[in-house]
Amino acid sequence: MKLGISHQRPADFSDARFRYLRTMGVETMEVRLESEEATFEHLRDIRDRVTSAGFELHEIMLDDLYSAAAFTLGLPERDPVIDRLCAFIRDLGQLGIRYTTYAWHTGGAYQTGTTVSRGAETRLFRNADAQALPAAFASTYDDDAMWANYRYFMDRVLPVAQEAGVHLQLHPNDPPVNHQGVARIFRSTDAFREAMDIAGGDTHAGILFCVGTWSEMPGANGRGEDIVAAIREFGASGHIHQVHFRNTSAPLPDFHETFPDNGYVDLVAVMRALAEVGFDGIVVPDHVPGDGRVEEAYTFGYIRALIQAVG
Fold this sequence. Notes:
Elements: E1 2-8, H1 15-24, E2 28-33, H2 40-52, E3 56-62, H3 69-72, H4 78-95, E4 99-103, E5 113-117, E6 120-126, H5 127-131, H6 143-164, E7 167-171, H7 189-198, E8 205-210, H8 211-216, H9 227-236, E9 240-244, E10 247-248, E11 254-258, H10 267-276, E12 282-284, H11 293-310
Parallel strand pairs: 1-2, 1-12, 2-3, 4-7, 7-8, 8-9, 9-12
Antiparallel strand pairs: 5-6, 6-11, 10-11
């Protein structure tokens, strides 16, 4: 396993930033940018800048297209948007960048407030507050509609990814609950089984296993999904390509984000399960309470120590 960093943008690149990341033990990274910036030449420049600084470039993803309403909701303009995404995937393949992330209309009422976790401000979500919000669109989109749109998307995009040698990483819906008139279909382990089946088990259609979002899922009994079992299932089949290592206070209906060692999920057990299935991909903090380098550095150290402990 490799310690990584997510949510990096080209504007973040500096010698000082790279020195700090090397000091933290970071080995690999995810970079994000807008589709209008994602020319072949700029993608090549990002690859070269990251690798010349001594890091592996795990993936590049498009902030504005990775979960675009055009294809997730099946809007009239979806075909040209899908075509643009496919062109981006082909460029990644030519540049030897083997991963990119997508999601299925995630977000919405991502948080309904803030609270404090061990002295640091952190995200708070209350489902009742989310359900009280008005619909986001003139139409509503139920599970059947969202699954139909997903199948259409995969029919178009997966063959391109296969040919390019690029692995798609599906991120769960965060928060994993229907709201504002849109079904958030990737809200359970069962939904990911369905997605892997739609792709015929091909690992080019894989998972960005966000432990934090999985911890928000209520599960069949309302006490949360069995995260370790899900890792063993999807990890053994080679479908997990990246892990967001994050913790929360409880599953839905209400939760707040915590530091990795004071949430309800046993992240030591999670890391052991990743080691047991032979996962050798990237593990990143995702996001952490607070807004400073101290909180981030604490989380880097926690993850790095666990990787070494189970290795």
